[in-house]
Amino acid sequence: MRWLDKKWHKVVEKKLIEVGDEPFGEVIVHGGNDISGEEANTNARCERMNQVTKVVFLLDITKVGDNVCFDASILVAVDIPEGITIIGDYSFWCCRSLKEIKFPKSLTSIGKWSFRQCCSLEQVDLLHTKVQKLGDYAFGACTSLREMKVPDSLQTFGGSAFYNCSELVPSDVKTYNNNAVVAYLRSVQSDDAEDSGIEVEEVEIDGTTYFVEVGDDNEECAIFDVTSDDELGDEIGFMLNGEAEFE
């Protein structure tokens, strides 16, 4: 949805300038601003994001900002308007109810962790877009993803872009005329999880041992179960600044 009515657009834009990209009850009005990871993880913002059911984009923006819809847990559908070329990092991470995304033709890049853990997402259609790059973990842990349609322009894949997409197999990927994505999927799905670009270490949390992705303290590092064979299990949460957050 876009604010095509200029009068209403001016009212909304004035409000946005006053408070920034803050959710208004069930609606978040987005003007292309990035939200810092620190701000996105505050309890106050997370509580507000858990009420959001609609995203309204202001006119003439070219980027969906970083972290803008992080943890919008009941958001079901998003219509990203024409003119947007970049979906930023972590934009829709942990939108666990998200089932429908309409991408614009103008889209060229999808950032890291953009749709990670969108576990209700079953289909992604990018055929009509100009996407050239998927960032690290762009669709990681989208455990319901069954079909992926991508354009011939897509050539660059970040580490583990489809990690733990357990329902997605190479034959479910549709391309124009090359097999870059299919070959990529086959390569990562034929490896063990430890060899797919993830470096982990054993960490004891409340008396239980888990595998935790190696990273800086101020980065969100995935937490994984340890299987009965002492191998990497399902992703069950993340670690940030030494604090564990479980799903």
TrEMBL record:
Superkingdom of source: Eukaryota
Transmembrane spans: none
Signal sequence residues: none
Pfam families named in the record: LRR_5 (PF13306)
PANTHER family the record matches: IG-LIKE DOMAIN-CONTAINING PROTEIN (PTHR45661:SF3), SURFACE ANTIGEN (PTHR45661)
Protein name from the UniProt record: Leucine-rich repeat domain-containing protein
Taxonomic source organism: Triparma strigata
